[in-house]
Amino acid sequence: MRSRFWPVLAASILVLALAPRAALAQRDLDQIFVGKGAPSRGIITDMGRNTVTLDTNGLSRQFEVNEIVRISFREEPPELNVARTSVLQRNYMPALADLKKAEAQKIDRDFIKHDIDFYRALCQCRLTISEGGDKAVATAAMLNFVKSAPESYHFYEAAEVLGDLAMAAGNWADATRYYGPIAAAKWPEYQMRANNAIGRALVAEKKYNEALDKFKAVTNADTPSAETIRQKNLAQAGRALCLAETGKVEEGVAALQDMIDKNDSQDAVLFARIYNTLGRCYAKLNKPRDAVTALLHTDMLYSSDAEAHAEALYLLSKVWSDINKADRAVAARNTLRERYAGSFWATLE
Known about the structure:
This protein has 349 residues and is an alpha+beta fold. The protein contains 15 helices and 5 strands. Among the domains are: 20-75, SH3 type barrels; 76-169; 265-349, Tetratricopeptide repeat domain (Serine Threonine Protein Phosphatase 5, Tetratricopeptide repeat, Alpha Horseshoe), CATH 1.25.40.
């Protein structure tokens, strides 16, 4: 037994001794994570809004930004990596606490400083959108990041967050402006996502013909993939809303019912928008009970999409009153104000 025990013990000690060295070696390298699998390690030599260049033992490789999930940097404060994980899980308050610890440390590398600035501004913006707060302050924080690091790989995400914050503030023209650079990105799925967002901003401005042009640009795109197909479906939902708002309500209802029949009901974002639009259509057709039924789909089944759920609660507060359910209307209004204080819908009477 002794002859077997000592080699195993020696091997275990060797593993334990090498583990910290391996961890330290990884800290000495930048890491780019793209989906599943191990990260690519090396030294980042160039960063742009479209590509990031990594040098690994003298071999340079470019990574498309649309494929990057996250990047960790050599010698960064460990709290920064913890904060990134919290952000990916949408736990913004803990992320802010860790970022505060990270920025208190001595940092020489600009990439790390910019990452802290971005994630701090992102947390501020997302919390302001959901829970309320000073939208001008949150906007300024993100604009300051973009000004200091205009070629960061976070550029397009920063533009989207600024657009979302403008939407929450009811600043439709600003939202269109912020989403604009994303529509000019090199990847079709980015272009389509941005055009859908701009379309929604134009709908809010009641510029239905211009919105239809944006939705049409999405549906006419000829790049088949799971994400582009999904964006086309979202554009069809936007188109149905434009039809309803321009007097073609029955045509809008037919389009929405067709989408319900043909698409995967597990897509919460898509189906929340479908049922919200269907609720609007039925309200226009003076069918408040049908409107309630449609909107309850979003409230009860698809509330994970915060923006759409806030809209559904606002619309429910109106149509419940139309069928003399004042208590339900008040409950919907209270839920809206409690859960989505930062939403544009919470500002409406």
